[in-house]
TrEMBL record, chain A:
This is PX domain-containing protein. GO terms for cellular component: endosome; membrane. PANTHER family: OS05G0346100 PROTEIN, SORTING NEXIN-RELATED. GO terms for molecular function: phosphatidylinositol binding; phospholipid binding. One of its GO terms (biological process) is vesicle-mediated transport. Residues 21-67 are annotated as: Disordered.
TrEMBL record, chain B:
Residues 23-142 form the PX domain. InterPro entries: AH/BAR_dom_sf, PX_dom, PX_dom_sf, Vps5_C. One of its GO terms (molecular function) is phosphatidylinositol binding. One of its GO terms (cellular component) is membrane. Pfam families: PX, Vps5. This is (wild Malaysian banana) hypothetical protein. It comes from Musa acuminata subsp. malaccensis.
Length: 541, 405
């Protein structure tokens, strides 16, 4: 795996290359429709805020206080989100966000989800007539070693495939903060077909896949590659349904109840998988018992969590608790902003209708003056409304970061629980070993009292010794897994802390700059009207 | 508050002995105070009159008036000055709870102030005796005058009018004229069409304006909640990034207050003038009705007079001794008919003048409202820009410091 420093360096090279090519082609830059900060102090790390308009910005001052950017620096235009089936223009969001810099390092240059189609399920069920489901076209541009365009892949996937991908990833990459997948929606199929829902899901899928691709480890996973590139049926083992697992478990149950670990034939490497459903009933009982012992008895298990981890875990939980209302309030704010913009537009239109009416019936000079005044206000209102809507589109993009990190705290929780459950397995196995060893001792002691040895007891001891050996192997595996997950946790925590700082800062900066830019523009629109109508205020006094 | 008229009235009311100062009449409606208890509670206002006009009792007079007093004045003027667009009153409040809210009281006070000053600056209405009564009489006299109007026992003149209306209606049916007579003047038709259409458009605009006020309030609330959440997030983050969040949160809360202020400004200086415009248009519709009535009376009396004339001629030819009686009746009827015609023609003349005044006044009123609206929105947007801009230095400081991390 790439060292993180090398990864950053690699990304910064790419960012600089993009800046240069962008400075050359201003036309390309003008296509880019996002807020771009300018006039930055020269000592700011270009990695964080590369200035796309290379030569355009004025020489930055050496002071640490940023010159307030006037709205001229903000590029106004309809926000080009992933609305619609295809992105127009260059996909790479050439804004200064650290996200885009990280995206540049991913194996995939571009992932797009489009063209939802309804297909009929070939049903082998008893119910006549098929149910329908929706498939999405997923196009991927792979980034090879160089900057040239790589091969493009197109596959069709349904949501169930996405669930499978997510499940396989969570099994294979325990301890990692895996971006959460879009929600299932357990509503009836009528609603599933509705255009709005499909569109909403399409966007969510696109976001999800892009985030997976950006993850330094998961982005390079086979699972993702196979999902994005293998045509036809998704070649990943599907999530086994509960029923078959129950059957599985029921068959094994007698063995488990009457035998020991060995009889259950659990391979050591299987031990590292969390105990699931019917299959591992006995193991679940044992681990539960261990958990209770951990909590309630005075005896501390020999392997415990380190303090530093527990602190960071608590911090993460804190973050989750704060991000939940923050994300909700951000959403509410956006909605309110949207409402103001809409009503402003409605007001403008009502005025326009009034103007049309009065113009038809105009008789008096004073009427015509009034119509002219009303026209100014109506035009301003419509302009302001459009600006509000644009501002909002940008705000959505920025404040979405809150929601994204909320998702990551949930992913972190899952990664931590991987660790906890593995630790519990280790602790349980160690308890088992202690118990087994004690039994061996007792049996040997009892046997030695009998002259010539107790053959049945000795046979028992041999069996137990065999069990101990197997359990020792399992314990080694579990410990290795635990260490592995611990390492993953730590790396991910470091990565999250670092990226969170950058992303939050970028979010705040983008949000603020946008608000400033658009507010100034709106102010100037109204200032013109105020000036044009100022004589009424004078006359009044 | 609309400034009172400062130019001299057309009809000179200066006595030869008074100094040649410009005549003025300043009225203000102030200090709403809640009086009474429970169901009978009401708001009283201080009405202060400052004038140098000789018809008034003195240079300054302060009286206490309530909403129903204003209604009395309005109704009296509407009765006496048919043809003139009487300035509209703010509505009675439909919802009990809302009646004593600060906002409603302020809106009403402002509207009443505008109302009384419009009367004071109207060339005809300002000379009304009822206006002087309203501005100067003590509360008891006012109350008596007020209760007279609403009493069951109406004045004799009213009874006669009611009787006459019934009479004409009956005669209409008898004569087979079920459809009321209407003017066919095309310009008047155009005006009616204009006024009715205008009311619809204005009502729609006023509704939108009111919704805009509400949305401003909601945005203010969202900003406040958002600010709080940002502050908490900042506390959780800690270090310089946390400070940025806190600053953002603080600014957000500050802007929330500014939004509530602008919402109030929008309500008082943009939405209310639009509502006032709607009321004014509705007042014009009342004048339409008056004119229609006057026209009908004029037509019918003219008709009846003609019939009486024909009858009189007949009697004359027959040399009947009923001639004298008939002649007296005819002369009475003729003078009534002439009066009705004069009343109608006065209304037409007044209306023509009033329409011009109305258009001019509304252009001025709306111009001012637009100005206030635009000014308020510009200021709000600038405040928003300033508040967010002030966060930038902290953001920069944070990103610079993070380089050394």
């Amino acid at each position: 795996m790439m060292g993180l420093e090398a990864f950053l360096g690699f990304a910064s090279i790419r960012a600089r290359k993009e800046r240069e090519s962008l400075a050359r082609s201003d036309a390309a830059a003008s296509d880019c429709r996002t807020a771009i900060p300018s006039s930055l102090p020269s000592d700011v790390d270009p990695l964080l805020f590369p200035t796309p308009r290379g030569g355009d910005s004025p020489p930055p001052s050496s002071s640490s206080v940023l010159e307030p950017p006037s709205y001229a620096d903000v590029v106004f235009g309809p926000f080009e989100s992933s609305n619609g089936a295809s992105d127009q223009g260059p996909f790479l969001r050439l804004d200064a966000s650290p996200r885009s810099v990280r995206a540049v390092a991913s194996d995939y240059r571009r992932i797009a989800v489009s063209d939802p189609q309804t297909e009929v399920e070939a049903s082998n069920s008893l119910v006549p007539g098929g149910t329908t489901y929706v498939t999405y076209l997923i196009t991927t541009l792979v980034r090879p070693g160089s900057d040239d365009a790589g091969p493009e892949f197109s596959v069709r996937r349904r949501f169930r495939d996405v669930v499978t991908l997510a499940d396989r990833l969570s099994e294979a990459y325990r301890g990692f903060f895996i971006p959460p997948r879009p929600d299932k929606n357990l509503v009836d199929s009528q609603i599933m077909q509705k255009h709005e829902f499909v569109e909403h899901r399409r966007l969510a899928l696109e976001k999800y896949l892009r985030r997976l691709a950006e993850h330094p480890v998961i982005g390079k996973s086979d699972e993702l590659r196979v999902f994005l590139q293998e045509k036809g049926k998704l070649p990943l083992p599907t999530t086994t349904d509960v029923a078959s697992r129950m059957m599985d478990g029921a068959v094994r149950l007698p063995k488990q109840l009457f035998g020991e670990w060995a009889a259950a034939q659990v391979a050591p490497q299987d031990i590292v998988q969390p105990a699931k459903g019917g299959r591992d009933l006995l193991r679940i009982f044992k681990e539960l018992k261990q958990a209770v012992v951990n909590d309630w008895s005075g005896v501390k298990p020999s392997v415990v969590e380190d303090k530093e981890f527990l602190e960071r875990k608590e911090k993460m939980q804190d973050l989750e608790w704060q991000l939940t209302p923050a994300s909700q309030q951000a959403e509410a704010l956006i909605r309110s902003q949207q409402d103001v913009g809409e009503i402003m537009g409605g007001l403008g239109l009502t005025f326009i209708k009034l103007i049309k009416f009065e113009t038809e019936e105009s008789v008096y000079r004073s009427q015509r003056i009034r119509v002219a005044d009303t026209k100014n206000v109506a035009t301003a209102a419509v302009k302001a409304s459009r600006l509000y809507q644009e501002l909002n589109a940008h705000t959505v993009k920025h404040l979405d970061t809150l929601h994204e990190y909320l998702g990551l705290t949930v992913a972190a929780r899952s990664a931590f629980s991987d660790r906890t459950s593995t630790l519990l397995t280790v602790q349980t196995l160690m308890s088992d070993l202690t118990t087994l060893n004690t039994r061996v001792e007792k049996l040997e002691a009892a046997s030695s009292k009998i002259f010539g040895g107790d053959r049945s007891r000795l046979r028992k001891v041999d069996e137990l010794r065999e069990t101990i050996r197997v359990t020792e192997d399992a314990k080694s595996c579990a410990i290795r897994e635990y260490e592995r997950i611990k390492k993953n946790n730590r790396n991910e925590l470091d990565r999250l802390d670092r990226e969170k700082h950058d992303d939050f800062l970028s979010m705040l900066k983008g949000f603020v700059i946008n608000q400033v830019g658009y507010s100034e523009k709106i102010a100037s629109v109204w200032a013109t009207v105020a000036e044009e109508t100022s004589r009424y205020a004078r006359d009044n006094n | 508050m609309i400034s009172p008229e400062t130019s001299p009235p057309r009809s000179s009311s200066q006595s030869p002995r008074s100094p040649p100062a410009a005549p003025f009449l300043y009225i203000s409606v102030t200090e709403p105070v809640k009086l009474g208890n429970g169901v009978q509670a009401y708001i009283s206002y201080r009405v202060i009159t400052r004038t140098n006009l000789p018809e008034f009792q003195g240079p300054e007079k302060i009286v206490i008036r309530r909403y129903s007093d204003f209604v009395w004045l309005h109704d009296r003027l509407a009765e006496k000055y048919k043809g003139i667009f009487i300035p509209p009153l703010p509505e009675k409040s439909a919802v009990e709870k809302f009646r004593f809210s600060t906002e409603f009281i302020e809106m009403r006070r402002q509207a009443l102030d505008i109302f009384i000053n419009r009367i004071a600056s109207h060339p005809e209405l300002k000379q009304s005796e009822d206006l002087r009564t309203f501005l100067q009489e003590d509360e008891e006299t006012m109350e008596r005058a007020r209760s007279q109007e609403t009493g069951i026992f109406k004045k004799p003149a009213d009874l006669i009018q009611i009787f006459k209306d019934v009479q004409t209606k009956v005669s209409d049916v008898v004569l087979g004229k079920e459809k009321p007579v209407e003017e066919t003047d095309p310009e008047y038709e155009k005006l009616k069409h204009y006024i009715f259409g205008l009311e619809d458009h204005l009502a729609e605009t006023q509704k939108q304006a009111f919704r805009l006020v509400k949305r401003h309030r909601e945005l203010g609330q969202s900003l406040s909640d958002f600010g709080k959440a940002m502050k908490l997030l900042g506390a959780c983050e800690g270090n310089s990034l946390g400070k940025v969040f806190s600053e953002l949160g603080a600014k957000s809360e500050l802007l929330s207050i500014k939004l509530q202020k602008e919402a109030h400004n929008l309500l008082m200086n943009f939405e209310e003038p639009l509502k006032d415009y709607v009321r004014a248009v509705q007042s014009i519709k009342v004048t339409f009705a008056d004119r229609a009535n006057a026209f009908r009376q004029h037509c019918e009396l003219a008709e009846t007079t003609k019939l009486k004339e024909i009858n009189l001629d007949k009697l004359n030819l027959m040399r009947s001794d009923k001639v004298r009686e008939a002649e007296m009746e005819y002369r009475e009827l003729k003078s009534e008919s002439e009066q009705a015609t004069r009343r109608f023609e006065t209304i037409v003349r007044l209306m023509n003048e009033e329409i011009v005044r109305f258009q001019e006044q509304k252009t001025a009123d709306m111009g001012l409202a637009f100005h206030q609206f635009a000014k308020g929105q510009a200021k709000l947007a600038n405040d928003i820009a300033d508040a967010w801009r002030s966060v930038l230095p902290k953001i920069e400081a944070c990103s610079v410091s993070s380089q050394h991390g």
